[in-house]
Amino acid sequence: LRFDEFEAIQNQVLYVSATPGPYEMSRSQNVVEQIIRPTGLVDPKITIRPVQGQVEDLLKEVRKKVAKDQRILVTTLTKRMAEDLTDYYARIGIKVRYLHSEIDTLERVEIIDDLRRGEFDVLVGVNLLREGLDLPEVGLVAILDADKEGFLRSETSLTQTIGRAARNVDGEVLMYVDDMTDSVRNAVDITNKRRKLQMAYNEKYNITPQSTYRTLKDKKMSTKKTPSRDDLKGMPKDELKLLIKDLETEMKEAANDLDFERAAVLRDQIVALKSIKKF
Asked: I want to staple 167 with a disulfide (CB 3.0 to 4.6 A). Which of 106, 136, 198, 260 is the partner?
């Protein structure tokens, strides 16, 4: 079905999203917000600073967070800016990696796990939202050129990016802005509103915020790559079924550990295996 055909046959629809967009909001008769977190975690504190000198200013904040053994996510406006920033920080001794669209799914998972382990401290990217990052080790999210309107600097995108720092009790956000656009203002207002509500709830019920926790498997136990189709040609059907069963078990374990990036990789491997003619 095309999307317009799907829309034509809808009856009742329940939209579920942390950041519903204009499409969902315009089609919803009732909206229920779940703002309060059972962990007590408040939305991160946001600091607005001028764009001029943002690279050097961010460097100072990076060093402060690294000293606390926290990780940093940096989102830039263009691929070239991400590459240049990564090269510059690497030259002056910052342990930094760059996540870009040409990196395949398996390598992205490995890079994100390496960030969590502390093998490097700063992850730079253009569209870090696409990665589905949910990392309790991240203590700082920096949004460079946050006032440049566009898809990656829309109200929804900014709100989602700010949320990447909401898994750590010390999470902070730096936004580099010269012009307070509506998108920036609204994203900041939404975050501050949620922050105040959570803080009031915590005070009322004597809740001490706790950072979220996600297990991280040893690197030696990282996801095994699926054999190529050529390797599978001579594999008996029973062995293929056993391989799929093993991967399904591993996928469920990853999901239970809230390691959804790894679970998604395993899911794709299972789908590829099931597409083989032997099934």
From this structure: 136
- How far apart, in whole angstroms, are the C-alpha atoms of residue 37 and residue 227? 42
pTM higher than 0.90, yes or no? no
- What tens digit of pLDDT does each residue of 22-57 get? 889 899 999 998 889 888 999 999 999 999 999 999
101 CB contacts (<8 Å, ≥6 apart)? 127
Rounded CA separation 105/93 (Å)? 28
List the chain domain ranges. Answer: 45-205, 237-276
Phi and psi at 130, nearest 5°, equal -65, -25
Q: Count the Cβ atoms, other than its own, within 10 Å of residue 43.
A: 24
Per-residue pLDDT band for 15 (boundaries 50, 70, 90) equals: very high
Sign of CA dihedral 189, 31, 136, 270: negative
Instruction: For residue 201, give Cα distances in angstroms to 20, 44, 80, 207.
Output: 24, 16, 43, 8
Long-range residue pairs from 269-274, CB within 8 A, at least 24 positions apart, any chain: 269/226, 270/244, 272/226, 273/226, 273/232, 273/240, 273/243, 273/244, 273/247, 274/244
CATH number 3.40.50.300 is the correct assignment for the domain at 45-205: yes
Q: Are 105 and 264 in contact (CB under 8 A)?
A: yes
- Per-residue b/e over 132-156, b at no fewer than 16 CB within 10 Å? ebbbbbbbbbbbbbbbbeeebbbbb
